[in-house]
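[job 4471] stage=fold_predict status=RUNNING
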Amino acid sequence: MNPEKAWLYFDHCASTPPHPDVVRTLAEVMQRHYGNPSSLHRAGLDADRLIRQARELLGKLFEVEADEWIFTSGGTESNQLAIKGAARANRSKGSHLITSVTEHASVLEAFRQLEREGFEVTYLPVDSIGRISVEQLRDAMKPGTILVSLMQVNNETGAVQPIAEAGSLLRGCPDTLFHVDGVQSIGKLPVRLREWGIDLFSGSAHKLRGPKGSGFLYVRGGVRLEPLLGGGEQESGFRPGTQNVPGIVASAKAVRLSMESREERARKLGGLRSRLLDRIALLPELEVNGDSAPDSPYQAPHVLNFSYAGMKPEVLVHALEEAGMLVSTKSACSSKDDKPSGVLLAMGYPRHRAAAGIRVSFGDEHGPEDIDRLADALAEAVRRLKPLERNGR
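[job 4471] inference complete, writing structure tokens
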């Protein structure tokens, strides 16, 4: 990639450009506060104080207790600790688990591992816009259901799950914990942990302009988890190992910046998505996947997924890259395989369309003119690729 070329980056669901204030905070803490926060000397106590302040900030932002937050290495670890930790620690109450078929790979793989350990897992289907049915969730519940795990925003399509409604249902099931993967929702949608009855909530800093390698997990007070690793007593005994002080402090700042500007950001990003939808409607070769209604409450404002069913997705991705536009095909965790998107297949799309999905995800740096540049590049790419489609190559 030529660093002198003006690229437009439309892959915020995979990772985001770090906020300048976050970068400054990260560098300052690395330079000045390098003590081990478990040490008893002044440098260690200063580092521990910074972690406590970061925890207090998350508690204030999400209106929960500061000590209900665990700092991790990212969204994958947060999801795995929540799911496997909760299932294993509460097995005496039952062995039935519920999730959906369109979860992130880190969630689905955790449930597959638990199935190999003898747990029973129900995978809820989704409708044509990628949402589960709360009625089907209710029907799937039974004695011995100890965990339900759902993502708030799908990382490929932006579909928003009925988290509040699911939480309301689960309030009547005291032995069932409710985990929500909030990696794609923080800073874009409301998150109400107490109001929605959420017991476990996962986040990742680099999805909201923070540093990579830093995540966080809300664990409601009283919830039991079995640690994934053995070792020291850091992070309330849930996660051993020396804490990443610079990453933790910078992550908390990234969360604060994203949540303080959430409503303004959601309006702006929703407008950009609507603008791109209007332009895509002029290209019959492209088909929008999921909810195409502007301002839909069932769709996150920063994600748009579409297919060029007559073309391999990587061909269109590279054609756009040549024009200076960076988009992706599906989840970054699985973008290098050539299988159809499991999410799009689960939504009922035919295999050829599910294999051709393109994901565009927006961020703070984008404006209407950037959407117009992307739409123009899309139109030109389709014009150039159309003969290849007709020839069946």
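[job 4471] summary: Residues 329 and 358 are 4 Å apart (CA to CA).
[job 4471] exit 0
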